[in-house]
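Need tokens for this chain, all 671 residues.
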Amino acid sequence: MDSSCILRIALDTPLNAVFDYRWAGEMPQPGQLAVVPFGRREVVGLIVEVLQETDVPAEKLKDAMAVRSQLAPLLPQWLALAGFAAEYYQRPLGEVALPGLPKNLRVLTTVALDRAIKKLAKQEAVHDAQPVGMPVLNAAQQEAADAIGGAEGFQPALLYGVTGSGKTEVYLQACAQVLAREPDGQILILVPEINLTPQLEANIRARFPGVMLSTLHSSLSEGERMLHWLAAHEGRARIVLGTRLAVLASMPHLKLIVIDEEHDPSYKQQEGLRYSARDLAVWRAWQLQIPIVLGSATPSLETWHHALSKRYRKLELRERAVKQAVLPAVRLLDMERDKPKDGLTAQLISALRLRMERGEQSLLFLNRRGYSPVICCESCGWISDCKRCTAFMVLHKPEHRLRCHHCSLEMRIPRHCPTCGNVDLQPIGRGTQRVEEGLQALFPEARILRIDADSTRRKGSAQEAFDTVHRGDVDILIGTQMVAKGHDFKKLTLVGILNPDTALFSQDYRASERLFAQLMQVAGRAGRAAQKEGGSASEVLIQTRYTQHPLYAAVVNHDFDQFATSLLDERKQAGLPPYLFQAMLRAEAPELATAIEFLQAARDGVEHPGITINDPIPMSMTRVHNVDRAQLLVESASRPALQAFLKVWMTELRAMKTRVKWSLEVDPLDI
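Here are the structure tokens for all 671 residues:
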């Protein structure tokens, strides 16, 4: 029935959250999309309220042009999720809600939407495939699966299991229980990185061939993302698997949320709306009163703190799932005694040779891509620093280029020193390319594969590389953090870790937590299959100059519990998260002084009882792409007090007249 009303519509703009428009036509519902005029443009917005009157003067009201009635409205709980994220992260509602939808939904034409609706109507899950049988779980796995699958209401649980303990199988069997109990129920499974989705997707499809699965991540084409999002929105997709953006998927019958590798910093968005998908998922589970499980071999300190304080239930898997598969022995190689040659100590080279002779695989982990971090002139001291950033230009030898990994500036390798003319320029340090070159010289007969951001630029190339490893067509794998977690390499018995020491001296208080997690995760790639008679015992060799460091002692003993507890004690004494709550105001300007001046004005412009506002300082990476950056840290022992302050402060900041580009991040990960 046609009628006249006022539509309150959220638009993707940085200033106001919502705008009012007139509408004369069939009564729409909150959660529908509408096409409206905005300035000189026509844009798509989200209806958040339908009103009978407004305070906006009639002469200033504009008419909405169309309502997308062919799409079922987003439910009130989804609007509440977007509203919470907007309020907590201090962003306009439209900046949260609209980017959370597929791009093809936000265009003026409905061609893509109509096409997706028709295609989805013809699409069904595969029913003719034979489901893979459920493996028999060990006692700890079965207890965890039953606890998760049988949970009712909001029951957050930490699934704390050593690497290779079968956390994925626990997820799958818990999901099976939920799907069997809830005829229309949906499950959301989050993973931290895109390259972890194919393996898990294949497992889910094999286990649940009659269940429609949607995947949501940034590597999908816009058409694919539209189709998968629509399947979830209409409730057809019973399981949704995705990276952090999937936490905002519309799922009207959501009954369980699984967050794999919950400690991973990739769950925190670092641009635009700087949200934590993990934290939003926990809030969403509370909102819907459904269970949520956070799984990790190295939980974040925030999650570990919640488990110790009984806010989260702790489910433990202390042993590897495969019989006769044991955690690898970890040894420290003292680089002061065993001097490296081409970045590798004699003991590590010997271990690599032994694995090759036995037909087993090895992994060398170095979290630094490129050939060399820098080239220099030993005559005058010139270093290949970036002209636009406070960073060095990395040598990429195969491409004969110097490349900045921050602003993407590239240049040819100079034939001589630009300062003194010396032609003898030397690379300093090692990246994955240089390690690969050294290995090819040491083991010319070896099948060597490098997996990093440079070698997997082409779409699908990462999965092709991992498939090659799984087939056993690789003797030595060289990789960055892309290979550190989630992958089950059956023939891998040796992990060598190169150059981890730099993280020990970082100014970031989270550096030790991240390094420990990274070492434990990459170490966990070894020895996941049952040890064969006559085969090598799985082993992890860490090259370091600091063999007495307590962090390495904890890694050697696989002792996350004690390490995390000691870190929590340090954080509590120092007044750091999770015992303190933070927000970071960042400013960018052509000159550093301008950014500092803005932050100082922001600091002095509002009263802040009970809130600590530190002095503005340059960021550790001060200049990026010819822009100087500074930051201002705000802290409070009370989350509600901090939120109340930020709400007032943001009003003041938006009223300031400045040409400085600024942004606010709540719960920052990088200090």
